[in-house]
Amino acid sequence: MVLEGNPEVGAPRTSDLQHPGNKGSCVLSSPSEDAQPGEEPIKYGELISTPLVSKALSNRGQHSISYTLSRSHSVIVEYTHDSDTDMFQIGRSTENMIDFVVTDTSPGGGATEGPSAQSTISRYACRILCDRRPPYTARIYAAGFDASSNIFLGERAAKWRTPDGLMDGLTTNGVLVMHPAGGFSEDSAPGVWREISVCGNVYTLRDSRSAQQRGKLVENESNVLQDGSLIDLCGATLLWRTPAGLLRAPTLKQLEAQRQEANAARPQCPVGLSTLAFPSPARGRTAPDKQQPWVYVRCGHVHGYHGWGCRRERGPQERECPLCRLVGPYVPLWLGQEAGLCLDPGPPSHAFAPCGHVCSEKTARYWAQTPLPHGTHAFHAACPFCGAWLTGEHGCVRLIFQGPLD
Questions:
Q1: Which helix or strand (DSSP H or E) is residue 25 part of?
Q2: pLDDT tens-digit series, residues 216-266
Q3: Which secondary structure element, helix H or strand E, spans residue 255, and what is its range?
Q4: Contact 42, 31 (CB under 8 A)
Q5: What is the dihedral of CA 240, 243, 248, 253, to 10 degrees?
Q6: 15, 264, 303, 365: most buried by Cβ count inside 10 Å?
């Protein structure tokens, strides 16, 4: 996803509308067919709604956030236009105000086909505001504005008044962010997961994803996105890369050169003595071909495909390595082709277990030790290329190739 130019909203202006018992109403009326100019229209009746309907909520040109404290008490925060920033919105809604539609990611299967009926991703999950002037700082906020330019936090959403008298709150399933320590580079280490509020403040995680009690305010951290920041929307995790960071990332041309170099070494199956080769990305990830390298993910020994050593009592993929006799999953190897997920341009020496995606050692070890949120409580390390949960002691394995005998 590339964010570029779409001016929207900026600074908030609080309008505290507290009118217990004051109802908003919708009048149903129509002019009579034989009505004379200036004659009053026929009034059929009124539909009474609550909480109140304010001018800020009904004006599509006025962005606002509505905090519902009770059925008769709401606080409306109005936002003014800001010519110095661009706003981009992310969520599962396919409406025009969402710039990037995000669908759920299933472990091992990548993105699901179309919006899931049981999706936990909010229709208006979050928004990112980018400064138009250098250094083009990008800040993330929970929740996005809907088709009416409003954000609604219902009675059950966590919300509170800040010490300076303003309102803030959290969305139902929350927007979590993790900034890596040391940036997104060869020296990176996973950071700590935090929750971002509607106003962009940083909090420790709640006891559960949708708990009404907020975490503690983390005053020395901000909502500014850094190179390598992870954004979790409760169903999908996004990686933020900066232009400067992407300049250091390997290119697709470099990844292709590494594939060709690996194939030029003519690795062989140590038992069948057949030459192995990584398939071209243009072929896509379909059924493995005859030269596809396979690996025993417990030991890392690379072979060609064979049918022996199957331990059916432990599952259809469980095989015994003919070299070291370790029993474990036996899967085809696929080169990871998303350059933005790689920390460095190192050679494809390691594979994630059990999916078999191949990348550099530092990239593999970083993602293997990075827990990604799952559900309302759990965290699991996952393959960045397909989303499969990682298994085994380290989550990845060093590949051991057999060179040609000649």
A1: strand 24-30
A2: 999 999 999 999 999 999 989 999 999 999 888 888 888 899 999 999 999
A3: helix 252-264
A4: yes
A5: 90
A6: 303
Q: Which helix (H) or strand (E) holds 245?
A: helix 243-248
Question: Which residue, among 136, 132, 256, 154, has the nearest Cα to 198 in the 3D structure?
Answer: 154
Query: Phi first, then psi: what are they for 64, rounded to 5°?
Result: -155, 160
The rounded distance, in Å, linking the Cα atoms of 205 and 192 is 10
- Is the CB of residue 328 less than 8 Å from the CB of residue 298? yes
In tens, the pLDDT along 297-322 reads 999 999 998 777 666 666 666 888 88
| C-alpha separations of 102 from 93, 156, 172, 326, 342 in Å | 8, 25, 17, 40, 22
Distance of CA 3 to the CA centre of its chain: 15
Cis (ω within 30 of 0) for the bond into 135?
yes
Helix spans in 41-163 (H): 55-58
Q: Three-class SS of residue 117?
A: coil
In order of 49, 65, 233, the CA distances from 15 in angstroms are: 20, 10, 29
- Ramachandran bin of 45, using left for φ above 0, alpha for ψ from -120 to 50, beta for the remaining angles: left
Q: Please report, for residues 41, 86, 258, 296, 323, the alpha-carbon distance to residue 392 in angstroms, rounded to integers and kept in the order given.
A: 74, 44, 27, 12, 19
Least confident of 24-38, 60-74, 99-113: 24-38
Helix residue spans in 334-386 (DSSP H): 361-368
CA angle 239, 240, 242 (to 5 degrees): 145
Contact in structure between 168 and 98 (CB atoms under 8 Å): no
